Description:
Chain A is an all-alpha fold. Chain A has helices at 2-8, 17-48, 81-117, 119-133, 137-147, 152-161, 165-179, 182-190, 194-202, 207-230, 242-245, 258-284. Chain A is built from 12 helices and no strands.
Amino acid sequence: MTAIAANLTPARWWHNRGVRRFMRHHLALLGIAMIAVLVLACVFGPYALPYDSLHIDLRARFAPPLSGHHYFGTDPLGRDLAVRLLMAGRVSLLVGFSAMLLSTLIGTFVGVTAGYRGGWIGAALMRTVDGFLSFPSIFLVLALAATLRPSPVMITIIIAVTSWMEVARIVEAEVRSLREREFVHAARMVGLSGRHIMLREILPNATGPIIVAASLTVARAILLEAYISFLGYGIQPPLPSWGNMLNGAQQYLASAPWLAIIPGAAITIAVTSFNFIGDGLRDALDVRDDHI
Amino acid sequence: MSGFLLNRFSQSIVLLVIVSMIGFTVLNFMPGGPLAQFGLDPGMTQKDIERLAEQLGLNRPLWIQYFDWAWRLVQGDWGHSFRDGAPVLAVIGRHLFATLLLMGTSTSLAIAIGSWIGIRSATHRYSLFDYCATVGAMVALSVPTFWFGLIGIYIFTLKLGWVPAGNMYTIGDGSVLDYLHHLILPSLVLSLVHVAIWSRYMRTATLDALSQDFVKTARAKGLSERRILLKHVVGNALLPMITLAGVQLPSILTGALVTETIFTWPGMGRLFLDSLGYSDYPMVMGLLIFSAILVVLGNLVADVLVAFVDPRIRLS
Lengths: 292, 316
């Protein structure tokens, strides 16, 4: 009865359908705005600040935030945290974005091939996807990163080759259902090549789910980079990344908590924004998802 | 039923074979191979390394190495740690309990809290609580586990002094209460992401169940909303969560590795990181394969469990 009673209570402003839609899009817009601010700050910010990200000043070690011109304080070597945060943002965002591009490319290629060819090849490819998904991603990434030379490019590649599976799954399912549609039969009857049908007829119809998956992959890639850099196997100092700025932060937690709080907040803001954008795109492009 | 089980078992075996191939490939295509770490050792000449490769059979064709390795894996011979010569499987076994304890506690916590949030979100759909839960879940999914852990330590250990910052027990104590005391913060930290996932899932599942005909029947015969929820809705919504628990295993293991590192928890994750630091190739390889086997078996157990609980599958 309470459910019915609830329906009879006067509608609140947030019950309105339009408001609801706006709320969803509002979050996506907020996400876009935050990413825009982050990117602009990371690109232009370092020029506006009076310090260099590698400038060591032992007299200014562990300066707390808002002391002098050190808006976010300094680290154990007296380097300015604000400028390091922005320089690190360049690296982290670039790695996250490039890893997304590469993994989406791999995932789309595997997904289209498996979905369109089907049969033996399709089954083998999809079982490989299952196999990769069985590894906890960080074990695989760390094992690779620890033995390969960890340059930013290599980290990007490692993240990409361990996070393409979701895209592959989504694309495969989409292509498999599109394959039997009339327009594909028509294209086949006209005598178009398999490659043309895959790339020109089927793929454009699967862009919605790919875009949604890609936006969520950026979020995951940024997180993954942060994890492995935090653990010391990602981006190597002196090049700062949001993850490796946190690397030594735990031992100074009692005396200099801002060393841990500030870079972590930057990661959270960036990842949340991309998740908001992904969620908004899912609504806008009307892509169904099983959970979340 | 037996057909389903047979099918599911054979799928898992195929998956295990693929997993072992991926693991083997990943660790063998690395420049220098398993002996690369000795290249920098001044006490080793190129000749020594070649002799070692010969001795360990690393100069045979890859596919022969794979079959040899896989066969020994099946027999339980996982090699010996480069660090101290202990058998890999035994060392993993010693660290398994800590990881399972942490994962089990945090998963139980996540299911309990997540279910409560999810069900409340569904019964109070589009309420302010529902919105906060939705946005909160998306933020929770975005917080790096290690950052959440550091903030937890800062607040609850350094500022409030309520819980210890690390280790699994106090040396010289080790009572159940002491274990629990050490378990609170790491398991809460590890559960955050999963609370978000469970609550989202539970919301959808509850809404789904609420719209079913049997709920209308229950309402029509005058059951209270509370009884309908407990008797008819939650049970139906919880069933697929067993499967979801299996699907979540890799991400729980990933979280466990990070959590164990921060809280100096003596589990598999920390063992993995330590082994990486020592370039302990057999240990790294063993843990990589072991974690994947754990995931494959976990999913198998989840599916079999669902089959036994769900009469639609059990009776078919």
